[in-house]
């Protein structure tokens, strides 16, 4: 694996079932390092878990190996998924294979870079606020963020439970969809997964790979003005050309408005940090991972362990999240963010009364140069303006390459209604034709 790209934290193999047949038989898969792999260290890109070896594998890992895929290693990521560039990793940054002076996006940057560099056929990422779609867009590959509840989170080390899903990254829509076929489906170990037989309008026998047929005849594509405002002009024109191409292939486009999304990124960060502050309380030096050698009582040991084990971005978020949840501020920040979340959800529901998919740039910017955004967290957060509304509303979305500008890839995001994965796969496959 290419050392200059640094896509992998750990190279290790879990053999797939040799008797399996189907599209994933013999495929190589890279797994984000916050997804548990039995016997293989799972670091979350953090010093805290640098030596942590899980005793079991995530459901998604077992499903991929059962389908005949071989796991080839664990990929680099922003520490605990907190970032948009893969620069907050304790294992050094990953570089974008398209232009090694640039970031691959994040937080699943190692996964997208592994696919873009040809080091794995497929990769798994996790998407809490864009972390599958952003790196897919920046590296010129395909990434799917499934509907909340379609894919098991059992064995995913949590960042913000109410927002995140594991999703596949691959070179083509069909390959990503085939990986989704393998990992989707309810799991008794994750009570938030849904049995599709009980979901109105969903097809439990759906093959997402089969939906990659490029047929967009009669499909209605909503184009929300708000998700184009403020985006880099080169990104906008590349995405508009891809949408025009969908029109030429038989889709109808219509301008729509999602007024709530201007509050999405703020609401997302309040909710994500609040959940993270609670989730990361478990890293206390007793149960998992790093433990400080410092002498002292429990409070000293807890504080030292966390001082040594967590990086700056993670500490910032634990502090802000704790603040947002604390007595006196809870109503002011956390509850307001939940209200905004409900509004975003309603806006999308209303929009899907009239359209089949919603199209926008995945990221409003081109891939950052390495180091460019690390000292400016606010700028980094704002880059998630188009991806975070989708997580707030628990919807499915795909990022598909729309083309290039100045030699850099641009991603088109297609969002569907809940459990509308077949529709977004179908539309995305027309973009790539
Ligand atoms: N960039 C976003 C964040 O830092 C998204 C992260 C993610 O999806 N894991 O929270």
UniProtKB/TrEMBL annotation:
Domain Amidase: 18-424
Region (Disordered): 82-111
InterPro entries according to UniProt: Amidase, Amidase_CS, Amidase_dom, AS_sf, GatA
UniProt EC number: 6.3.5.7
Gene Ontology MF terms: ATP binding; glutaminyl-tRNA synthase (glutamine-hydrolyzing) activity
EC category name: ligase
Reactions this protein catalyses: L-glutamyl-tRNA(Gln) + L-glutamine + ATP + H2O = L-glutaminyl-tRNA(Gln) + L-glutamate + ADP + phosphate + H(+)
UniProt entry keywords in alphabetical sequence: ATP-binding, Ligase, Nucleotide-binding, Protein biosynthesis
GO biological process: translation
Entry GO CC: glutamyl-tRNA(Gln) amidotransferase complex
Active-site residues (renumbered): 32 (charge relay system), 107 (charge relay system), 131 (acyl-ester intermediate)
Signal peptide range: none
Function: Allows the formation of correctly charged Gln-tRNA(Gln) through the transamidation of misacylated Glu-tRNA(Gln) in organisms which lack glutaminyl-tRNA synthetase. The reaction takes place in the presence of glutamine and ATP through an activated gamma-phospho-Glu-tRNA(Gln).
Assembly description: Heterotrimer of A, B and C subunits.
Family named by the database record: Belongs to the amidase family. GatA subfamily.
Protein name, entry field: Glutamyl-tRNA(Gln) amidotransferase subunit A
Gene of this entry: gatA
